[in-house]
Each structure stands twice: as C-alpha cells, then as structure tokens.
Amino acid sequence: MRQAEVSMMKPPFVPLATLIGRELRNEKVEKPFVKFGQAALAKKGEDYFLIKLDCERVPGNPATSFTVFAIFDGHNGISAAIFARENLLSNVLIVYIDDRGNVRDNSYIVVIDGWTVTVASVGDSRCILDTQGGIVSLLTVDHRLEENVEERERVTASGGEVGRLNVFGGNEVGPLRCWPGGLCLSRSIGDTDVGEFIVPIPHVKQVKLSNAGGRLIIASDGIWDALSSDMAAKSCRGLPAELAAKLVVKEALRSRGLKDDTTCLVVDIIPSDMPILPSTPLKKQNVLSSLLFGKRSLNSTNKTTNKLSAVGVVEELFEEGSAMLAERLGKDYPMNTNSGIFKCAVCQVDQPPAEGLTLNSGPFFSPASKPWEGPFLCTNCRKKKDAMEGKTTSTHTVIM
Predict the structure, then answer these.
(1) In terms of C-beta density within 10 A (0-12 exposed, 13-18 middle, 19 or more buried), how is residue 292 classed?
(2) What stretch or stretches form a coiled coil here (predicted)?
(3) pTM over 0.85
C-alpha cells in the first residue's frame, strides 16, 4: 500500500505541546488594553490618519467593540486621502472614490478586535508586528512595481506596460512605472486615468496574537524608505507607544532627512494585567554583518520579516492578496433549487439570476474583457466590481 494511502487511514500525529497550546487558546481570555502613540512630520502635507476607539459592531453592546487605525498617503493632491479617511470606516470598509483624474491615495486600515488583528492595504505604506522574542512580522505587502514581481506580471497580463521614464538619449531613469499614467504603484485608491491596470483591491491579512500581546508599527512610506522593518522595531522597543512613535519618526529623519511626509502610529496590544509591553532584549549582532546587511531592506520587502512568529505567539487566520475578484470569491455560489434564486457572493442578498452577473455570463463593457468566472453577483455589487476594475465612466463611483 502506498504511503499516501496509509496516511489517509491514520490521523496525523499532533505533538502534546500543540494540543496544550490549542486548549489554552480556547480558554476565555480577557480582552487586552490598546494603547497608541502618533507622530508625523510634513513635507508635502498629503499624509492623513484615522484613529477610532471603541467602535461597536452592535451599537450599545461593548462586548462587540473594536479599534481602528488607518493611514492615508495622498499623492498629487490630498482629495482622495481626505475622502477615504472620512468614508472608509463609516461605510463598513467600503471605499468611495470619484473621478478626479490623478488624485490618488495609498492607504491601509488596521482593525483590532481583542487579540485578532486584521490589516487591509493598498500601496506602499506598511504595518509590522513586533512580538516577544524580537520577531518582526510584516502584515502588509508593498505594491511597488519595482519590487513586486507578481504585480508587474498582473499589470502586463492585463494589457498595461511596465517601464521606466525615458530621458534624452534613450536612457531610462527612476523606478518601474505603469503606463499609461506613470504610476510606480500597482494598487491605490483613485488613479482613474490609469484605468483597470491600477486596482484598489487590498491585500488582507488577519492574525491572532497570544495573550503575551504585541506592538504594531503603522507608517507611511516616508518611514519605510528610511528604515527597514527591523530597524523601526528595534528603535523603540521597551518604550511607551507615544514616545515610541516619536522615536521612529526621529530615526527616519536622522537616517534619510525629510524627503517625504512621514507618519507613524504605534499601537500596543497589552494584556490586561500589564501596564506596558515588556521590553525585548536586543540580540547581539556581528559588526561586519551589520555593515553588510543592515540596510538591505530599505526599499524592499525583506522576505524573512514576512514570516510570522513561532506557533503560540502569532496564529495566522487568513490571508488574501489576489487582485482578481473571481479568485477571491471563488467559483461556487449557492442557489435555492426550489425557487431558482441566487445569493450574491458579496452582499449575501437573494436575487433572481437575471438581476445580476452569473458565472461565465460573458464580457461586460469591452469586447476585450474576459468572461466573468466568479460566483453570482447582484446588480449593485456587479457595478462595484466593474468600478474596482476600472470599467466604468461615471463621474461618481462606489467601489468595494
């Protein structure tokens, strides 16, 4: 009998430590304290942020409370950043944008619900998690075309072009950009002039902390162009969140100078029986190694920091980074066989199939468009999908 068949008959071995860890995680644990600090220096005045404490999924029920932190990094204007800041949360994480040409916004939102942290991001702002033991985890993905091979492939597969600026003599300069439009990012809110190549569909990651807690450092690219994830975490360990945010900004300024807006939020998720997160002892580092490798992550995602901490410290619950809605939603959709009613995969409302977009229903808006290969979408959610993919010309569009 083949080994694969044997393994199917016998349940996999689970170490005792893992079983004990599961039992401990299933115990009712009191919600942690959330303490935060904020600091910023303006160069262009296009960075905005949002801090919303004690939000309630069920109004009047404190047991359903959660906390929200967000950063909105505007480019070529402030309109999209302000609009997203004012509407993102109030519309239950449904972002509204309107047709304002090049006005754009690279942003992300962090939702803290007890020990669970959910991060949704577009652009090149970043959120890192620093936990006990000095392990730094990256909770976002940089959508810079220069560093993100998958996004370059997605843009070119969609019909866009990726290349650098050409100067006199045919020399190429600067980072890789998407054409038309010349944007060096592959995802943002706004950028209607670029069309369907630049999408506002976020990378989403959800993790659950152990009851030891952890620290989030949420910052715009003005910080991350100057500091690696590890450098930012080490610069403020053992300090209260308010002071920590100021030190991260100060360290970025010392390293690179004020070349861009720099905004930093430091959020500590602290066990209820602790006044402050315990400091993590700094590991000794070889001087030569530090000189050779200390700054290799200044402008790119360090793959080692993307690995989550050891089991028992951080548990990954969910991650989805695809820019294709069909892949995110899947191809299966429920149907009421008695009435012939379909349920929208997004809003979960039952509707007749004639009122929405069904599987393989054919191209929309353009003969070059590929047939929809996702689940049933109602008319309203179909319009949101088209707006996200840059397939609408309305002057005021609602997108998911």
Answers:
(1) exposed
(2) none
(3) no
